[in-house]
């Protein structure tokens, strides 16, 4: 009688349905969580479109970012507006230079600054943090005190100071951004290393005779990767923000190169004359990049660090 | 607690000294200076000028004098660019202005951010929550140097309600836009931090107990949930202070308030190292002090931390 009811039969079917359950690694798990996050996936799509635009956009440009369109220059407000016919798709800036080419150039700069700055911070910070945490003792104390001291000084002021002292160039900008970005990373990595280094699997590796360097590289580094990636992804927009801020003040990279912060500053300076497109195009790109980066960072955090939700 | 405070203080003092020394050397190894102009000065004149500013002394003597004057007299020396002003004058003129709207925007951002975050957490997954989260993310993507132009565009150029810049002794019309521009971005961060912290607290066991014994929601939130919620916010106040400092550089320039930021960027562009160093050291030292106070407040606030 018991086995006759429909519900029981259904249940029995379910229990006897032996499909082999495949194990999933932590990384597969994380990827699944990330892919399911709609905001993050949409952000990746938008960001990819922006990157694609900076790559193929120049092939459609009629004017380069340095050329001055003398015909338009006298009457930017009347003739410099965005139009297909003149070849200035985004209009021209106050000096008659093509905004389309300049926006592409600026977006490339900002993206590169974010990526290279964050990558420098990631590499330096991770090495430093692992070394400090793993060696421990007095070395750790001295190394972290040094980081604490540097962290106590406002980063933007240090970057401005470095750029003024060593001259404004692309190279110096990356150095300066990297020089302040690695500090927090080193702190986070060191904290994680401290909790990892007394775990059993490290002890086992040491008992098996694995060299100290191999332990750091093989056993500690992979276990740090989640935290490091999450923090690095949050660092990218921060780098872009800082660089734009400095460029806005006119202390960033110099002409003919430009960055979104500089373009926004120029657009903001001329918006009183009714040439709003000079502000709106760079602003749109800027806000799109920053917001998508935030969402991607949040998505990565939810995917790699699920307890933090 | 006292021992902990003393130890933190003992770290803070060498930090500030090291900051001064590091900045001093950066200045000395910089190529060019305020006296290198397109028309080179006769060597005799240059020597006289250098003697006037003490630049002919050996380096260690210069460093010692600089340190001594700052620590003992709180004197940052003369400006290299303005013949009749020293760095102290410039700071005394600009700093009160930056401090006024800086502390105002600090208060506004904390008050609005915390209440927004708490409202969002209490009404989790309601339209208030979505509104607060959306606002928080949008605000974070709109740092001060974006908000400035947007505000001027809206309130000065389109609506014509507020003056586009100036200070006039800090009348309210001149304060509104600097405060909003500076506050928006970290108001968003504070709202997000408060919301996620409050959600975590509301899901914890002691809140369930408080609810289970029949306390009204109002009491549960004010008496039990608020304090642990604010812990991460308190530890975020140090970074907020840094935001306000660096943000004020922009606000001073964009809204022409006459604050310290204008002097700072001006000195950076004209290589007036004395002013540049003075302001950097002042801001660095302030940051160290605020971080110290934040840590102490945190230790006092959190019953779990006992040093």
UniProtKB/TrEMBL annotation, chain A:
It is found in: Cell inner membrane; Cell membrane. SUPFAM superfamilies: MetI-like (SSF161098). It is a multi-pass membrane protein. Pfam families: BPD_transp_1 (PF00528), OppC_N (PF12911). Keywords: Cell inner membrane, Cell membrane, Membrane, Peptide transport, Protein transport, Transmembrane, Transmembrane helix, Transport. InterPro entries: BP-dependent_transpt_permease (IPR050366), MetI-like (IPR000515), MetI-like_sf (IPR035906), OppC_N (IPR025966). Residues 107-297 form the ABC transmembrane type-1 domain. The chain crosses the membrane at residues 39-61, 111-134, 146-164, 170-189, 224-253, 279-300. Belongs to the binding-protein-dependent transport system permease family. OppBC subfamily. This is Oligopeptide transport system permease protein OppC. It comes from Ruegeria haliotis.
From TrEMBL, chain B:
Its main location: membrane. Residues 95-294 form the ABC transmembrane type-1 domain. SUPFAM superfamilies: MetI-like (SSF161098). The chain crosses the membrane at residues 9-30, 104-122, 134-160, 172-191, 233-255, 275-301. Keywords: Cell membrane, Membrane, Transmembrane, Transmembrane helix, Transport. PROSITE patterns: ABC_TM1, PROKAR_LIPOPROTEIN. It is a multi-pass membrane protein. PANTHER family: INNER MEMBRANE ABC TRANSPORTER (PTHR30465), OLIGOPEPTIDE TRANSPORT SYSTEM PERMEASE PROTEIN OPPB (PTHR30465:SF74). This is Oligopeptide ABC transporter permease OppB. It comes from Ruegeria haliotis. The gene is oppB.
């Amino acid at each position: 009688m018991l086995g006759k009811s429909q519900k029981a039969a259904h249940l029995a079917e379910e229990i006897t349905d032996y499909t082999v359950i495949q194990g999933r690694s932590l990384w597969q798990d994380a990827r699944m969580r990330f892919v399911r996050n709609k905001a993050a996936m949409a952000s990746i799509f938008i960001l990819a479109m922006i990157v694609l635009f900076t790559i193929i956009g120049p092939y459609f440009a009629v004017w380069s970012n340095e050329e001055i369109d003398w015909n338009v220059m006298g009457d930017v407000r009347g003739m410099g507006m965005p139009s297909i016919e003149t070849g200035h798709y985004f209009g021209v800036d106050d000096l008659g230079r093509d905004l389309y080419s300049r926006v592409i150039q600026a977006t490339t700069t900002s993206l590169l600054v974010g990526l290279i700055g964050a990558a420098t911070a990631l590499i330096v910070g991770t090495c430093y943090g692992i070394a400090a945490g793993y060696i421990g003792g007095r070395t750790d104390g001295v190394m972290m005190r040094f980081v604490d001291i540097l962290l106590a000084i406002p980063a933007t002021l240090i970057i401005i100071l470095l750029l003024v002292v060593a001259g404004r160039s692309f190279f110096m900008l990356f150095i300066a951004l990297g020089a302040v970005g690695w500090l927090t990373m080193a702190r986070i990595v060191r904290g994680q290393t401290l909790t990892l280094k007394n775990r059993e699997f490290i002890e086992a590796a040491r008992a098996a005779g694995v060299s100290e360097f191999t332990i750091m590289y093989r056993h500690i580094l992979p276990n740090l990767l989640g935290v490091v990636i999450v923090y690095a992804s949050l660092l990218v927009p921060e780098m872009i923000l800082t660089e734009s801020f400095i460029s806005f003040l006119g202390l960033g990279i110099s002409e003919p190169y430009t960055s979104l912060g500089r373009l926004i500053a120029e657009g903001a300076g001329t918006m009183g004359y009714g040439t709003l497109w000079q502000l709106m195009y760079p602003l749109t790109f800027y806000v799109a990049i920053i917001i998508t980066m935030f969402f991607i960072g949040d998505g990565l955090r939810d995917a790699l660090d699920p307890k933090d939700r | 607690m006292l021992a902990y405070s003393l130890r933190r203080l003992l770290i803070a003092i060498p930090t500030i000294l090291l900051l001064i020394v590091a900045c001093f050397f950066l200045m000395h190894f910089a190529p060019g200076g305020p006296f290198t102009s397109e028309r080179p000065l006769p060597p005799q004149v240059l020597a006289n000028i250098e003697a006037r500013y003490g630049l002919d002394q050996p380096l260690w003597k210069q460093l010692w004098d600089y340190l001594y004057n700052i620590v003992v007299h709180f004197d940052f020396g003369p400006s290299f660019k303005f013949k009749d002003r020293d760095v102290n004058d410039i700071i005394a003129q600009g700093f009160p202005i930056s401090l006024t709207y800086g502390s105002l925007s600090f208060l506004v951002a904390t008050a609005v951010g915390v209440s927004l975050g708490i409202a969002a957490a209490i009404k989790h997954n309601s339209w208030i929550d979505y509104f607060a989260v959306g606002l928080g993310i949008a605000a974070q993507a709109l740092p001060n140097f974006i908000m400035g132009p947007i505000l001027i565009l809206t309130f000065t150029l389109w609506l014509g309600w507020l003056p586009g810049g100036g200070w006039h002794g800090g009348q309210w019309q001149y304060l509104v836009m600097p405060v909003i521009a500076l506050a928006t971005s970290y108001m968003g961060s504070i709202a997000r931090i408060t919301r996620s912290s409050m959600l975590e607290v509301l899901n914890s066991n002691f809140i369930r107990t408080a609810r289970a014994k029949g306390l009204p929601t109002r009491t549960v939130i004010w008496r039990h949930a608020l304090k642990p919620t604010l812990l991460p916010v308190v530890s975020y106040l140090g970074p907020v202070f840094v935001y306000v400092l660096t943000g004020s550089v922009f606000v001073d320039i964009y809204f022409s308030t006459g604050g310290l930021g204008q002097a700072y960027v001006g000195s950076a562009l004209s290589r007036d190292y004395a002013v540049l160093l003075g302001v950097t050291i002042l801001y660095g030292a302030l940051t160290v002090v605020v971080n110290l106070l934040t840590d102490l407040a945190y230790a006092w606030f959190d019953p779990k931390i006992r040093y």
